[in-house]
Amino acid sequence: MALSHKRIFPVDLEAHFREPIEEEFPLYPEPPDRPRRLVLDNEFQSDAAYVKGLNQFVDDMSKHVRTLQEEEASIMNTFNSKLKEQASRETNQPKSKNDPKDLAKDEFQRAISGLRKSRRAYKGIIHDALIERQKFFDSYKYSLDALHDIHARYRKLKLSDKSTPLPYSYGREFNAFFGLLISLQLFIYLIAFAIYTFSDNSFGNNGDPLRADDWYSYFIHILIIVVFGFGYLSVFLQKYMYGAAAFNFFIAAFTFQWALINLVLWENVRFHPTSFLRIPLTIKILIETAYVAGGVAITLGVIIGKATIVELLVVSFWEVIFFTLNRYIVIDLLNIVDPGGAIYIHTFGAFFGFAASWLLSLPYAEVLNSSTDSGKKLMSNSYMGDFLSLIGTVFVWALFPSWNAALAPNGTQYRVIINTVIALSGSAVVAALASRTFRGRNYHVKDVQLASLAGGIAIGSAHSTIISPGAALIVGSVAGLIAVVGFIFARKWLESKSPVKVFDTRGSVILHGVSGLMGGLGSVIACGGTSNGNFYGQESSTIFPTSLPEQGGYQAAGMVITMAIALASGFVAGLIIWFLRRYISFHTRDTLFSDKREFHVRVGYPEFEFKEP
Asked: What is the model's pTM?
């Protein structure tokens, strides 16, 4: 049974604007004509034209009111001038019947009363227009909800199998997502049976006496950071809370499968280059896999909200290949020491997202950098979203020592844990201080959410194993300060004034990219500025695979290689998405930072709010 898409109005919207009183107000603009038929087809063109006309009408009327106010001020100034002139001429002569001061006052009253009457009338007309506009949006929302309910009832009664009509591109993209995901999963299933097995001993599963904790405890902490912490860091967007958390979880799950295959393949390349062997899986390998998923989650922080699920799936598939390649080069071949991944995780993930986001942001540069466009409204924060994001920060902050210490060299874990806790405390305190200083005596929750974590990232490389606790406190404090300054000043320049104009949704480039570079630079200085010896009762040869200070050169080379691979592979990922948007994916400015396209969000979903000027 076919359903009509004619709009359903719950209230009487036939009341028109006040009729213009030509003899009193001959110059004020006419309101736009009401659309005779409001339909759900053609992207609501008639609706959009009507709302645009209403907005233009309100703007024009507001200009008239401002003109009247300027004229009123001019009359007031003229009246004051006449009073001053008369006061300078006053003598001791008695007051005459036709006193000039009284005549000027009468003239002023007549002129000003007419203007004020006109201004009140204009404001009344503007008020009517704003009420009409709000009624229109109320009816618009009601009609969509009513139509959805009617379709649901017909489907329940099996009288219709049609749902609310969607653009043809949605179906094409859904088919692409379904086909791509099924193909990748089947491929992963086949590979899993071919290359996975179990170890016949406990090595790599239970740890050893020199470890601060067993492998599984570290793995659980890191997994919480990836799927919960990084996901909730992005839920501050008022209309993209579902997508920020759910897509991070979905991509992390997919990345975990694909990264495990890549790590096992690189293990074969490293240890069995002439033959292919089944690699026994251990919890230690799962930790390395979780690190890969964490790097991809950092990239999602840059592009989240600007890409569809198909695009996110393609980006994560591509990134895992080059992430594991970079890890093989800098960790396995160059032998850099990077236990917390400041170089090969945080720096790679942030700058891969930076390069990919450049092409993803180009079509929406006008929207992303406009303070009046609807896309900018979608990027605004919500109170509850910021609160949930702050919860994510607390979880990441508390579990960050496990992230940095899990793969630290034997005998150094306790030092890495202590230095990480101290650096995190320094960045959290300095972030709060800097936020209140630079934001004008008020804290900004974004600074607390992100800059508090900068110390843990900046201490997450080789220097965490050998520097003193005091030095760790300085590293964390400086990282927190730089992060806040970057969020306030550098981020705006990066998005609107830089040559590339990259929009970073969560601030991953500043938090993970800059702090990761600080961590890499700290490892270069710490390793390059010392020589072989004893560090807190432990020989340097048991910490670093290369003698000091040569290890500092390897750390610097690892930074350069990581940056090069991340930027190059990220740019190619952006090109792939550009191609997909021409033929498969159809991301538009209407779907920026919005859950409506991918989720059922009828209950509690925030609608547009239009406030009177």
From this structure: 0.71
